[in-house]
Amino acid sequence: MKIISTAKELKEQVKLLKLSPLGFVPTMGALHNGHISLVINARRKCPLIVVSIYVNPTQFNDKEDLKNYPRTIEADLDLLNKHLRKEDIVFIPYDKEVYPTEDKRIFGFGNLDNVMESLHRPGHFNGVGLVVSRLFDIVRPDMAFFGLKDFQQVAVIKSLVRKLKFGVKIIACPIVREPDGLAMSSRNRLLEKDIRKRAPVIFKTISRAAEMFGENDVPGIKKFVKSTIEKEEGFRIEYFEIVDDIDLIPIKNKRGIKKGKHYFGCIAVKAGKIRLIDNIEIPLA
Ligand code: PAF
């Protein structure tokens, strides 16, 4: 694999190799097997892939979160080296490559700005939009790979692609879990030991909620999820919503279900000091 830090060198290298389709896996580093599954998916479809590592300051609404975000560049490169081919590229841009001047664009993602993550992390998705559009401009991929753990992010990026008319196909890849069910996340390594041990309660509870949907309505399921998770000391729910997979509009009851749509239970939990998110498809009878 090649390691590149400037947009100019990246563009030259991609042009030289003339391999298509070009796949792109944007990351903020602190890589785990969830990221590697994106790399493996990208490798299957694309003879050349670019993996970026860039901790994007504009998507952190909380400065402490940005400061504490894990940075493990040596380990990341070792891991990527095991999975990338010799022509594949790791792009580790300097700040000035991504943001040569201050980027003041405000996108507006419609309903996506008014639900779940957007209510708890104001400005977060605008920052994601800024960095992803800048990286798409630099890398010019044919396909880009994102993990479905960040369910709302995938919807936001699809909306960004439509809005800015990028010719990029967005490939959403399944959530990868630890053996005990916890969704893999760079933040898991920040969990206190005791909290980490009990964190599988999140997936276990939303799995049970999905099963309950056949015989229960939304308010009862929400109550069950909140009380089960908050029974654990140090765990507090920020939201649990059942939403469709396109506009992510929360339904209040089963009458809100629209034919032909898929529904997901999406959750955010403060586990000790760390915020975790997860989701599960709700089977409709
Ligand atoms: O999902 C992430 O790691 C980030 O939000 C992304 C897409 C790399 C943008 O910084």
Walk me through the structure:
The protein has 2 domains: 2-173, 3-Layer(aba) Sandwich (Rossmann fold), CATH 3.40.50; 186-280, 2-Layer Sandwich (Pantoate--beta-alanine Ligase, Chain: A,domain 2), CATH 3.30.1300.10. Helix content is 39%, strand content 20%. The chain contains 11 helices and 9 strands. It has a 6-stranded parallel β-sheet with strand order 1-4-3-2-5-6, with helices on both faces. Strands 7-8-9 form a 3-stranded antiparallel β-sheet, covered by helices on one side. Strand 5 (143-147), helix 8 (151-164) and strand 6 (169-173) form a beta-alpha-beta unit. The mean pLDDT is 97. The structure holds pantoate (PAF). Pantoate (PAF) binds next to strand 2 and helix 7.
Characteristics:
globular, alpha/beta, 6-stranded parallel beta sheet, Rossmann fold, 3-stranded antiparallel beta sheet, Pantoate--beta-alanine Ligase, Chain: A,domain 2, 285 residues, binds pantoate, 2 domains, 9 strands
Strands in their spatial order, largest beta sheet:
1-4-3-2-5-6
Tell me the span between the first and last alpha carbons: 47 Å
How many domains? The number is 2
Helix content: 25-40%
The CATH class of the largest domain, by name, is Alpha Beta
Q: What's the assembly state of these chains?
A: single chain
Order of helices and strands: EHEHEHHEHHHEHEHHHEEE
How many helices in DSSP terms?
A: 11
Say what the CATH topology of the largest domain is: Rossmann fold
Bound molecules: pantoate
Radius of gyration, whole Å: 19 Å
Total count of strands: 9
Strand-residue fraction?
A: 15-25%
The largest sheet, given as strand count, sense and whether it forms a barrel, is: 6 strands, parallel
Within CATH, the superfamily of the largest domain carries the name: HUPs
Mean pLDDT: 97
Structural class: alpha/beta
Can you tell me the overall shape?
globular
CATH architecture of the largest domain: 3-Layer(aba) Sandwich
